[in-house]
Amino acid sequence: MEWYESLEKQISTLFDLYKNREEFMDEFKNFITFIKNLRGIAYFTGVGKSGFVAEKVASTYNSLGIRSCFIDPVDTLHGDMGIFSKEDATIFISKSGETKELFKLFDELKNRGIKIIAVTANKNSYISENADLRLIIPIKSEGDFLNDIVPLASTITFEAVLQSLAVEIASSRGFTLKDFLYRHPGGKIGETRVH
After folding, report:
1. 162: nearest Cα among 44, 13, 12
2. How far apart are CA 26 and CA 37, in angstroms?
3. How far is CA 184 from the centre of its chain?
4. Which bin fits 159, alpha (ψ -120 to 50), beta or left (φ > 0)?
5. If you ran DSSP here, which 8-state letter would residue 145 be given?
6. CA separation for the pair 179, 23 (Å, rounded)
7. Bridge partners of 136?
8. Which of 11, 50, 80, 85 could bond 76 through an S-S bridge, CB–CB 3.0 to 4.6 Å?
9. How far is 67 from 61, CA to CA, in rounded Å?
10. In the chain, helix, strand, coil percent, each to 5?
C-alpha cells in the first residue's frame, strides 16, 4: 500500500461521516446539550491510542472554556476515585467499546452514580449499551494494509468529531478570543493582543 492510498482511505472515512451527518445529528445534539448543562468536570478516558485522543480532546475542551480533564483508566482505580462528584461526567473513548481495561472503571463510576458517555464505533458494545449517553461514530476504513486493525482513521475521526462539538459548545456560550487568550498565555498564541 502506498502512503497516499492510506491517506485517501482516512480522508474518506472522515468525509463519509460528514456526508451522512444527519443520521447522527440527534446523538450529537444530545451530547452538546449535556455538556453545555454539565455543572461539574468532563473527564475523558481511553486506553492505548484512544487514550491519546482522550488526552488531546480534554486539552482542547479546556482551551475553549469547558472544564475537562484526562484520567488514566487504570491509575484512577488506584487511589484517585475520590476526585469525582455527582455533577461530573466521564467520556469513554473506545473504537470497539469492548476494551477490557475500561470495564472496571466504567462499572465503578456507574455504581457511584457518575454519568457516562460512550464514544465508539460499535453500537452493540458493553460500553455503548450501558452508558447514559452515546456517540456512535462509524469507521468505514482505518486506511491500513492489515485488515483495518491499525487505529489510524478512527483516532483522527474521533478527535475531529469531539473537537468540532467543543467548537459548537464554546461558540454557543459566547466564548471569545479574549477568553481563549486568558487560558493560553504561553507561546506565540500568548503574544496575541486583542484590540
Report:
1. 44
2. 17
3. 21
4. alpha
5. S
6. 33
7. 120
8. 80
9. 7
10. 50, 10, 35
- Is the predicted pLDDT of residue 15 greater than 90, yes or no? yes
Contacting residues for 69 by C-beta, under 8 A, at least 6 apart: 41, 42, 43, 44, 58, 62
For residue 9, the cross-strand partners are none
Measured at the CA of 68, the angle between CA 58 and CA 185, to 5 degrees, comes to 80
Strands (E), the chain: 42-45, 68-70, 89-93, 115-120, 133-136
Residue 90 has pLDDT above 80, yes or no: yes
- Are the CB atoms for 68 and 62 separated by under 8 Å? yes
Per-residue pLDDT tens over the stretch 133-184 = 999 999 999 999 999 999 999 999 999 999 999 999 999 999 999 989 888 8
User: What are the backbone angles phi and psi of residue 123, rounded to the nearest 5°?
Assistant: -70, -15
Grid coordinates representing 129 are 449499551
CB 102 within 8 Å of CB 127: yes
* Residue whose C-alpha is closest to residue 182's, from 174, 190, 173: 190
Q: Are 142 and 9 in contact (CB under 8 A)?
A: yes
Q: How many residues does the chain have?
A: 195
